Amino acid sequence: MKEVKIGIIGFGTVGSGVAACLLKNGDVIAKRSGIKLILAKIADLDIESDRGVDVPKEILTTDAHQLIKEVDVVVELIGGTTIAKDLILEALEQGKPVVTANKALLAEKGEELFAAAEKSKADIYYEASVAGGIPIIKALREGLVGNRINKIYGIMNGTCNYILTRMERENVDFEPVLDDAQKLGYAEAEPSLDIDGYDTAHKAAILASLAYGEWFGMEPVHVEGIRDISLDDLKYADELGYRIKLLAIIKQVEGDVQIRVHPTLVPKNTLLADISGVFNGIMVNGDTVGDSLFYGRGAGRDATASAVVADLVDVGLNLKFGSDRRVPAFRIGPQFKKLTPMESIESRYYLRFQVKDKSGVIAKVADILGKNQINISCFIQREGQSKENVSLLILTHNALESSVNMAVKKIEEMAEVRNKAKIFRIEDM
Amino acid sequence: MKEVKIGIIGFGTVGSGVAACLLKNGDVIAKRSGIKLILAKIADLDIESDRGVDVPKEILTTDAHQLIKEVDVVVELIGGTTIAKDLILEALEQGKPVVTANKALLAEKGEELFAAAEKSKADIYYEASVAGGIPIIKALREGLVGNRINKIYGIMNGTCNYILTRMERENVDFEPVLDDAQKLGYAEAEPSLDIDGYDTAHKAAILASLAYGEWFGMEPVHVEGIRDISLDDLKYADELGYRIKLLAIIKQVEGDVQIRVHPTLVPKNTLLADISGVFNGIMVNGDTVGDSLFYGRGAGRDATASAVVADLVDVGLNLKFGSDRRVPAFRIGPQFKKLTPMESIESRYYLRFQVKDKSGVIAKVADILGKNQINISCFIQREGQSKENVSLLILTHNALESSVNMAVKKIEEMAEVRNKAKIFRIEDM
Q: Which residues of chain A lie closer than 8 angstroms to B302, CB-CB?
């Protein structure tokens, strides 16, 4: 049986998960795939601490460069965009295929990495970089290869989804839930990468590149996070038949592609609305297959390890059969016309203004919207606790982002309007 | 670019879908995969009727044997278990890989087919045989290769799910919905294959074989259909927090495997309960990845074509790289101890008896259940329209199937009990 020597760089949470999986399930993996994955080396600066995995001491090393020389496949699990990149390039230069879970690195430096892979004819596999245990990269690259992709909707950040789910279910506002999530380890001490949407945006950039054949990087991705979602917004949305999710939206409209990450009102009667807690869900609409949805754990030691191991088998089979670069790492040449800048997208909108309850306010607001070609589908003014501060809630029909921004700016300038408006987009699916 | 000559046998619904997909998306498929799939021949007894696909007349033939000789890959889409089997064996004998959507043939004759494939070193790919557009075979075989499979739950028959969804939503009983489904083309004139559970059972046999490494065939699969589900049952289940679905359950308990298809009460707060209409959903629990769920169209021209085309790309890449049998068609050697016979499974149960409302009936029923080691979790007697016929509704804790059957038989023998009992199993997930 073909033996494949695996070297893991980074013996943290995921690294120990991969080691544990190979030790526990190596026998069944070999029977299923016809190759034997051998855990040959693990490199980390710390090779003393106990990771709860029983690996032989002699395979531990602090020398990642030596590891790269000795193994057949390099698994990069140290994260970050500097040393990780150098080590991946070093492996590729030696013709060693690389498996990585590093979404930030791929999203930001994918172009450079894939150029190096192309040059060396070695593969980069990255199933674990998007939505952990969900085999979405393989599904997009292979399972749905016969489809032109119309849309991808992704709930891809467990921290955000956990926070929104708890706010909704426990009737608590954002800040206290974030505090508690940090105490429980569901959110980082520095939570910005997650809650400001960048982590989701990294994943969106990767999926968009795979779907539309060009490595986009982060530049064209519009990113908003969940800090502005208040409990009131969740309640209003609920009453109107929606849940608010941090959604990645990748879609082509008449051949043009848009990539954006922002809080989105999703109809409650859809499966995406039911994806709760730390789980991830990705809906793909292909021109042949129609709607399909993939659901599972998006992060965590074992779910991510499951994805890394699947990649290791693919890479190992490529080595066995000499079929390196069997499936191009990403698709060759753009499968779209142009990128749609954010101000040119069309969407439905949820707008909430806090206003003084004076006669004429509603007429003025409606007038400004109308003058900007924004049609209203729902308009609610609620009786407030005081006449000085009532909520004006507006759902629109499809409207142009730039028109909405202009109208909102005008409305915010009105003397009767307090604070900044809340603007969320609605996706009816 | 490597060219792969495709021959389709069976120019029906799916055959024309595959042809349409190759014609429409051949360019993007080639860019993504690095191979060119060429629609070389289509064989059918009828080569005159218009299928709404613009294929060149000269590729149509009535001679399937000649087609097999001329092409690189044979797509079997005629269905049935006789001629289809002969043609597949003929292709394999000539070393031609085969792509098929024929679940009945695989489930019933898989052993013979895979032995022939083994002998000839040609591949059989069968993504389209289970759950149409959902790439579940690839997910189980490759994406989750690092997992021992604990459980698979599948809603895999669109006709049944459509009927149950309409009964529930429109408050109508089984027969009129079936009648209407037949008129609308959602159910066959002879609906038994679907509504009596056999179609789901075929798919369950295939998934179980893939998960546990032995081609099981149909013999060990326990099958019940949906004819016995009445509107009353759906309503009672709903009140108790459940929906009733025709569920395939494949699971290993302490190393022993059970494969069964029957109406099942599924908690309403699970994603599986929300899979409605003609859609399919498959939940897989792996020891590494945890729960994951795959959702999409389970049937229909284009969804099935999407799966066939994905297989064609895999087979084509195998031909390009000489990596035939890259991933073993099914897993080598059993990954389980033994099969659990149906009478030995443990489950929770929903039992409904129609009884005369006389004193002592409840005590007698409870006594019989207790004597058979069946613990009750919920017991409801409703006031009926008449004292002669009231519903006695019982949910049990985990109990042994044989004990439940014995107890039910005893209860049915009571003078106060009318008709046969309704027995459905509950899966809490």
A: 288-290
DSSP A93-155: HTT--EEE--HHHHHHHHHHHHHHHHHHT--EE-GGGSSTTS-HHHIIIIITTT--EEEEEEE
The CATH number covering residue B243 comes to 3.30.360.10
pLDDT of residue A333: 81
B-chain residues near A127 (CB < 8 A): 143
Q: What's CA A351's distance to the chain center, in Å?
A: 25
pTM of the model: 0.96
Helix (H, G, I), strand (E, B), or coil: what is residue A344? helix
Please indicate, yes or no, whether residues A87 and A118 belong to a single structural domain of this protein: yes
Tokens describing residue A273 = 């609305």
Quote the CA–CA distance of B426 and B376 in Å, as a whole number: 13
In sequence order, what are the residues at sequence separation of 6 or more whose Cβ sits closer than 8 angstroms to the Cβ of residue B18? B8, B75, B77, B305, B308, B309
**How far, in Å, are A263, A272, B187, B192, B281 from residue B168 at the CA level?**
33, 22, 17, 21, 18
Query: What's the pLDDT at B385?
Result: 72
Contact A32 B326 (CB under 8 A): no
Measure the CA–CA gap between B212 and B216, rounded to whole angstroms.
9
Is B126 in the same domain as B168? no
Parallel, antiparallel, or unpaired: how do β-strands A346-355 and B2-9 relate? unpaired
B135 and A139 within 8 Å at the Cβ level: the answer is yes
Is the model's pLDDT at B183 over the cut of 90? yes
Residues A147 and A197 in one domain: yes
- A75 and A97, same domain (yes or no): yes
The domain in which residue A61 lies consists of: 2-135+301-321
Query: Is B377 found in the same domain as B349?
Result: yes
Reported as a single tens digit per residue, the pLDDT across B46-73 is 999 999 999 999 999 999 999 999 999 9
Rounded CA-CA distance B25/A78 in Å is 39
Give me the amino acid identity at A385.
Answer: Q
The question of whether A203 is a catalytic residue gets the answer yes
Produce one character per residue of A75-103: b if its CB has 16 or more CB atoms within 10 Å, e if not. Answer: bbbbbeeeebbebbbbbbeeebbbbbbbb
Tell me the H-state helices in B121-197.
Answer: 136-138, 158-170, 174-184, 192-195
* Nearest Cβ partner for B332 among A31, A139, A322: A31
Minimal C-alpha gap between B49 and chain A (Å): 23
A42 in Cβ contact with A36 (< 8 Å): no
Tens digit of pLDDT for each residue in B114-148? 999 999 999 999 999 999 999 999 999 999 999 99
CATH (domain of B41)? 3.40.50.720
Under 8 Å between Cβ of B43 and B62: yes
From the list A167, A350, A151, the residue with the least C-alpha distance to A248 is A151
**Closest listed residue to residue A155, CA positions, set A276, A65, A254:** A276
Contacts of residue B428, Cβ cutoff 8 Å, sequence gap at least 6: B267, B348
Backbone phi, psi, residue B285, to 5°: -110, 115
**Total count of domains within chain B:** 3
Nearest CB to A327; choose among B33, B275, B288: B33
